[in-house]
Design a protein that fits this description.
The complex is a heterodimer. Chain A is α/β, with parallel strands linked by helices. In chain A, 30% of the residues lie in helices and 25% in strands. Classes of the chains: A alpha/beta, B mainly alpha. At the A-B interface, α2 and β6 of A face α1, α11 and α12 of B.
Chain lengths: 274, 364
């Protein structure tokens, strides 16, 4: 399975073709010839060591930065050529965090996701209000809607970030390390929320370090290391010693749990010092 | 729940009219009082109304000298209203663009750039003498001074912003430091010009008086200039207000929500520079209004720019005209230039704001 990037298919919503990227003033590329195709209903988890280029790939897919080579297309058109509002209607990005915590109310913050749907001087209409209500409800934040963002717990803030992206009502959802510094219960509920979006038909890409949550929820895993996709496939095809040990080292314990989802068993991986 | 009754919540939800109407009423009262009291003595409300009637052609006969004095007060008031609103709007826009409550037209170099531009033009057209400077100049020369102020403000603001911009982001700490360097350099040039003019008394007096920031002896020219700049800047507000709210989470976050970050940044900077530069052209450099007024507004209406910027348009002039009125009432004999008064009151206020924001500043 190693070194087997998938071939982009015709019906995919988003296709990255031979994407390379070099940071400004850097001497070397940080991503090399990335191919990734994704269709609605899929949940792809991008895993890999720190500094491997996962978040950069997400920013490229969101159209926030220009690839040095290759291109990313959404339903046939380059994401960099889309006007900013059109791009935001098509692609929603949930960042790891914000430069500064907004001092607005939760509902106003989530309503920011509707910006790309408003007219130039338009005030939010019934459709926008309904989209915000739905997003708050999906993220279980309806009862917190009138609270200031600053009062929310870490898990609730992460939900608010996701709710804002849901309010964008875009077919592609990109999520960057959503479970960092959250307790196990919140990690699970965040992934359930994200996986629910894939079930609704959205194409979802999640960058995560949590191999077990990825194993449990992803339809496909991509292992990214040193700017290259080393392996891509079902969780049971990627979460294997011969794939992961060259990347993470050998101090890991591998096992399997039964699952109601295909392929029937889900591997788990524990960091284990022995 | 306790959390549901926090001040932030009530601020953001309070209807904006409930804030704007009392502010407008207070401003109207301060405006009328300011027309009643001046260096030529206190007049009754009836005398002020008569003066207004004359000005708008509603009353025919009256005392000519009294009317001249009234119109001086009226032009002074109208210029002050425009300057206060322009500086507060400029400060509100800049604090939004730079996501920092300490940004102001003075700190990022607009005021000093416009001052240098104006002073260079004053010297080029041969001065004009004292507070009546622009009025005494032929219209073409006065326009040159105004355009030169606008050009100076735009150039320095663009230079400071570009210098603080790296890899598509504006570092606020760098911006403030570059602003300090730019202001110091411009101050050096201004002193150099004044030093070079020491032998030419009238010219030296013109540039020196300019530097104080003065609202005395204004004419319809100043009123048109300042209000023209304010209206031009206001035309940009619908294109940036909502976007500035979304910029609060960072440039990349705003871009992912569909904001054209570059366009919004430059439009807001342009609007802020037009407002502040025309204000400098009309009244000289007046500090601290642009810094303090948005802070006061946030305490009443919260942080959303669609609420904050209209409130700035009322609080800025209220701060400027109200302080002047208070000073003239408390010390009738002392005639302080407006820029000096603002520095004496605004400086300590700025210090208080800095101390209140220590936790944020320490992270820069």
């Amino acid at each position: 399975m190693s070194a087997a990037p998938e071939s982009p298919s015709e019906q995919s919503q988003v296709v990255a073709r031979a994407v390379t990227y070099r940071h400004p003033q850097a001497e070397k590329d940080c991503l090399h010839g990335i191919d990734l195709a994704l269709a609605g209903g899929e949940l792809v988890c991008v895993i890999g060591p720190n500094g491997g280029g996962k978040s950069t790939l997400l920013r490229l897919m969101a159209g926030l930065i220009e690839p040095s080579g290759g291109g990313i297309e959404l339903n046939g058109s380059s994401v960099r050529r889309l006007a900013p509002r059109a791009r935001a209607r098509a692609i929603a990005l949930v960042p790891q965090g914000l430069a500064r915590l907004p001092r607005s109310l939760v509902r106003d913050f989530v309503a920011g996701g509707r910006y790309s749907h408003l007219g130039r001087f338009g005030t939010p209409g019934p459709e926008d209000r309904a989209a915000v209500d739905t997003a708050l409800e999906s993220a279980e934040l309806t009862s917190e809607a009138r609270r200031p963002m600053a009062e929310l717990s870490g898990g609730q803030r992460q939900r608010a970030l996701i709710a804002r992206a849901l309010a964008q009502d875009s077919p592609l959802l990109l999520v960057d390390e959503p479970t960092n510094s959250l307790d196990p219960a919140h990690q699970l509920s965040i992934f359930e929320l994200i996986a629910g979006q894939a079930c609704l038909g959205r194409a979802v890409v999640v960058v995560t370090h949590d191999l077990n949550l990825a194993s449990q929820f992803a339809t496909r895993l991509c292992l990214l290391d040193a700017g290259r996709i080393l392996c891509s496939g079902r969780p049971d095809e990627v979460l294997r010693p011969e794939v992961l040990e060259p990347v993470y080292g050998s101090r890991m314990h591998f096992g399997e749990l039964p699952s109601s989802l295909p392929p029937g068993v889900r591997p788990f991986v524990l960091p284990w010092s022995s | 729940m306790v959390a549901h009754s926090t001040p932030t919540r009530s601020l953001e939800q309070r209807p904006i009219v409930l804030v704007l109407v009392p502010l407008a009423a207070a401003l109207a009262a301060v405006g009328v009082l300011s027309l009643m009291g001046g260096s030529t003595g206190w007049w009754s409300l009836g005398e002020v109304l008569t003066g207004l009637g004359h000005t708008f052609g509603l009353i025919e006969n009256g005392e000519a000298l009294m009317q001249v004095k009234f119109e001086l007060r009226l032009h002074r008031l109208l210029t002050a209203l425009g300057v206060g609103a322009s500086l507060a709007l400029s400060g509100g826009l800049l604090q939004g663009v730079f996501r920092n409550d300490l940004a102001s037209p003075g700190i990022i170099g607009i005021t000093s750039g416009a001052s240098l531009g104006a002073v260079c033009a004053i010297v080029a057209v041969g001065g004009g003498g004292g507070g009546l400077m622009l009025q005494r100049l032929p219209l073409g020369a006065a326009t040159l001074v105004s355009l030169s102020a606008l050009g100076g403000g735009l150039l320095l603001a663009a230079a400071v912003t570009l210098a603080a911009r790296r890899a598509g982001r504006i570092s606020v700490a760098t911006l403030l430091l570059v602003g300090i360097a730019a202001n110091a350099t411009v101050a050096g040039f201004l002193v150099l010009i004044q030093y070079g003019l020491l032998e030419q008394f009238e010219m030296a007096k013109s540039t020196l008086l300019w530097g104080y920031g003065n609202l005395d002896d204004r004419s319809t020219y100043h009123v048109r200039l300042v209000w023209g700049g304010l209206l031009a800047a206001l035309a940009f507000v619908p294109f940036v207000a909502r976007e500035l709210d979304l910029l609060a989470g960072g440039e990349e976050d705003a871009a992912s929500l569909g904001v054209n970050v570059m366009r919004v940044t430059w439009l807001a900077l342009l609007a802020a520079t037009i407002a502040a530069s025309t204000s400098v052209a009309g009244a000289g450099p007046i500090g601290f209004v642009g810094l303090v007024a948005p802070h006061v507004c946030r305490a009443f209406v919260g942080r959303a720019h669609r609420r904050l910027l209209p409130a700035c348009l009322l609080v800025g002039p209220l701060f400027l005209v109200g302080l002047e009125l208070a000073q003239r009432s408390a010390f009738p004999g002392a005639r302080l230039p407006t820029g000096v008064l603002m520095a004496l009151v605004g400086g300590p206020l700025f210090f208080v704001l800095l101390m209140r924001q220590r936790h944020e500043l320490d992270e820069l």
